[in-house]
Amino acid sequence: MAVVDTLQKAGFEAYFAGGCVRDELMGLAPQDYDVATSAHPEEVLRHFPKAQKVGVTFGVVLVRRRGAAIEVATFRSDGQYDDGRRPTSVTFSSAQLDAQRRDFTCNGLFCDPIRGTILDFVGGRADIQARCLRAIGDPARRFAEDHLRMLRAIRFAARLNFQIETSTLAAISRHAAALAHISRERIGQEMRMILTHPSRRRAAQLLLATGLLQPVWPWPLEPAHVQAAKLSWLGGLPEQTGFALALTALLCDLSSTHKAHTMPEAMQKLWVLSTQETADLRFLLSQLPVLQNWKSQRVAVLKRILADSRAQDLLALYRAGTPDANAIQELEARVRELSAAPLAPDPLVTGDDLIAMGQRPGPKFRAWLEELYNQQLENQFPDRTAALTAARQLVQQHSPPRPHER
Ligand code: ATP
Ligand code: MG
């Protein structure tokens, strides 16, 4: 508000623009406020000397106000798009032309917070009212300019619970294959936003129906009934769900037919996942089958899984993919039972103990420690003395007899 006020008092046009206007009209809390203005970047900088230039060629300046960063962008028209990603040039223009270069009518509104008015050059208010997601201008041309807008359409339609207008939808289906030309980073960022939002099931349904998933997915898509199962899996996840967890739901039907252990790395490359996301994906994909067969697992295996920081995600995934409520209850009862005692107690036997028994660190050494810890988790040792006795036995059983000294 203060930014708009300052610019207006200096004689410029200045409005809130895009997503924040849409969200306020819909009674949602805007994530951030963007300002569009007739002031050129150097004029914005003159009034806000501490502002940061983020994309002066595109006319964008970042002004910080009470901890929030407000993007102040000069009204502009985009020039030619040569690469399906970015305009080769921009020219500073008017509010009306600035509205026209935006992607969807619901994102093309301005609000003058001082006068309390809405400026609508694109029919955005009526479309918001009708819950309709419509490209501004000719959809085919707009998606050819910037292919990423097709994914944005899915994201907004799902998130806002809008229907995609017929010619916009048809243009997406026709141009879907072009998504393959968008950078992996941008695809990954959009997919992260799409799949971490509670509307992920509808979004995935739209991605499949429009053919947008296939160009950015390395595996063949499954038959319709498997896709339906996958969607219900996605729909069963908790509202607050991280990227790795949602992605696992999208992948786990495939993991029976493809090499599950290569999937996390493949996804990391494809959608530029972080190291943490990739590790989480690996954990969830590899441990889900273990949890699904929990009745035949040894206690130590289950306790190790439950002690992991991602256990709640894994359980959420199991619940989402298990239609049988009794099976879920049974597992939950078992989890409660196992969690009654500490899931990850300090080991009673350590490497130092094995060294004191004359052993040297190595693969065998590690395997012994692991087995001793498994036995500890299975309550086989009343105390450390019992654990050390077991360690000595293990070492003796497996150590080759010393050659006789000559
Ligand atoms: P969110 O709440 O997710 O931030 P938003 O509508 O603010 O949604 P942003 O990606 O932050 O979306 O972009 C701000 C505005 O810039 C949009 O509302 C839209 O008007 C315009 N915009 C962003 N990306 C594009 C694009 N690829 N093509 C055309 N206009 C775009
Ligand atoms: Mg925004």
The ligands found in this model are: adenosine-5'-triphosphate, magnesium ion
Classification by helices and strands: alpha+beta
Query: How many individual β-strands?
Result: 11
Strand order, largest beta sheet: 3-4-5-2-1-8-9
How far the N terminus sits from the C terminus, by CA atoms, comes to 92 Å
Instruction: Please indicate the count of domains.
Output: 3
Biggest sheet details: 7 strands, mixed
CATH architecture of the largest domain, by name, is 2-Layer Sandwich
Short description:
The chain has 406 residues and is of the alpha+beta class.
Keywords, please?
elongated, binds adenosine-5'-triphosphate, 11 strands, 406 residues, 20 helices, Beta Polymerase, domain 2, alpha+beta, 3 domains
Could you please describe the fold and organization of this structure?
The protein is of the alpha+beta class and 406 residues long. 51% of the residues lie in helices and 11% in strands. The chain has helices spanning 2-9, 19-25, 41-47, 95-100, 124-129, 139-145, 148-160, 166-175, 184-196, 200-210, 224-235, 243-251, 263-271, 275-292, 299-307, 311-320, 325-339, 351-356, 363-377, 384-398, and strands at 14-17, 34-37, 52-55, 60-65, 68-74, 76-78, 90-92, 109-112, 117-120, 132-133, 163-164. The strands form three sheets. The chain has a seven-stranded mixed β-sheet. The chain starts with a helix and ends in an 8-residue tail after the last helix. The structure holds adenosine-5'-triphosphate and magnesium ion (MG). The site of adenosine-5'-triphosphate has 11 residues, from helix 7.
